[in-house]
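User: Here's a protein and a ligand (iron/sulfur cluster). What would the complex look like?
Assistant: Let me lay out the input and then the predicted complex.
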Amino acid sequence: MAGIYLHIPFCRQACFYCDFHFSTNLKPKQDLLQAIHQEARMQQHYLQGEPVETIYFGGGTPSLLEAGETGALLQHLRELFEVKEGAEITLEANPDDLTPEKLEALRKVGVNRLSIGIQTFAQPVLQGLNRAHSAAQAHACVPLARAAGFDNISIDLMYGLPGQTAEVWQQDLDLALALRPEHISAYCLTIEPKTAFGKWTERGKLQPPGEEVGEEHYLMLTQALLRAGYEHYEVSNFCLPGYHSHHNTSYWLQKKYLGLGPGAHSYNLESRQYNIRNNGLYIKKLQAGVLPQEGEELNRQDHINEYLMTGLRTSWGIDLQYLKNQWQHDLLQQNKRYLQEMQARGQARLENNHLMLTEEGRLLADEITARLFIV
Ligand code: SF4
């Protein structure tokens, strides 16, 4: 089974914290869509005939596309690949794009899952991030999507934001839970150097909340969502039973995926390909019939470290037998003492030959993974 990711690199305005690949110049939209169609044709054999069970429109802001444009891309993918019946088809959307007409049209062209970038329900905090939507739109979008027939909705939230006190974050959590989305992703703000927040922090114009605020918010998040019946299946992801994101899970479980669009990555179990992060060049190369990408063969160390990094973030953990069989790596043997210490501290547990982090351990997931990496 495999997945396809499409990167739609356009946004209405630049959020102050964002370092994803996007442009606010929408003029080349048609050329870019044609280039994505062309890339899909050229990559028709990348997945070696494996059936596609997930398609994910990410960005950028894919909800800026007309539903007809999204539908044309889906139709083309169905012609080129074996897309399974009932495949999970997700579209990332911003609340300000979700009108009743747009939602209905998206359902009609085959989108069956929405991932809505709400981030926070607090108007001053939204403005402080330069989000394009208002608090009123954040409140309205999920009920509108339900009315249009969407029964698989994910929302994105952010915490550790400037101006987001513990009270504001608790209110965000309460409001999110009242909407009862099937899935919630929650990310702590990180300050990336090339963003507006990064530059302001460097100049002393912005003092972002410290790490301890992020930790406090993370604990509030996990407590509230676990109490409300959500499963915490990945460090940043929670779902009602049966509603984990199939697409993201396939990344974490090391399945093949094809990425289309500028900045998208692909993975075929042996190597990884990276598309260039430049809309103009991406279009130009594809118009000339050249794939706009660089590749990298993965060696044994890359495979093991990547499996550790992704697996430890999930509730399924690391399959120790898989590591032995596939990569001749005996994680238990090589990290005996450290693993015993982690278990004694309540940060990890061993179950059915799998190593999993506990809620306490997940707070330190990056640090623990770095200790287990092979070098
Ligand atoms: S809408 Fe999303 S991709 Fe676009 S700038 Fe904001 S966070 Fe980045």
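Summary: The first strand starts at residue 2 and ends at 8.
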